[in-house]
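1st attempt posting a full record on here, be nice pls
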Amino acid sequence: MIELTSATKHYDTLAAVEDVSFSVKTGEYFALLGPNGAGKTTIVRMLLDFTRPTSGRLSIGGLPSTQAAARLGVGYLPENFHIQPYLSGRQYLERCADLLGMGRSEATDECRRMIELIGMQGREHSLAGTYSKGMLQRFGLGGALLGHPKLLILDEPTSGLDPIGIREIRLLLETLKKDGMTILLNSHLLSEVEKICDSAAIINQGRLLVKDTISSIATDGDTLEDVFIRLVRG
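the predicted structure (as tokens):
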């Protein structure tokens, strides 16, 4: 589903990403891990063609990430997601459906389904300005899931959520994975990653340190967090 081959991104003299190669299989739940400034968000931005690589190749579903067709089946939730405060969650979803080219009947059905899926029945008509961070994240996830994407890219989806909200998002993502969706998760919550991800890549200072299954990375009684700290500290 995702393929990076010697992906490199330089900003003047800064090497944000340097010669990174890894792949993500269809249906895999994959975590992209690293400290702040490691290059995780730059990789996501290159995959989504928000920025172009200096060199190397990135592809989604076998298509170069620079082609618009590669992103037709991609849902994306950015880290600092927000909805205009004068819109309701339902109106936000309707605008997303409109951008996807859905007809009125399909959009109505899809928005209703999504509101149920994210557990926001009864609050869908409230203005976004009254929502908590967790509620905004739910509607952001709902917008990313409209149109039945094959690949879901999530940048810190549980940021600002309380423990109950984190668990509910995890259970929702587990359901999506069982349905065959490929998920790329950029997260700092290593305990959650260890519970639900199949594999992970750890990067630091733009370079790939390790890419393997979670069970292979965290061995001999070490947690994923133990290994992460040891690798990043060198």
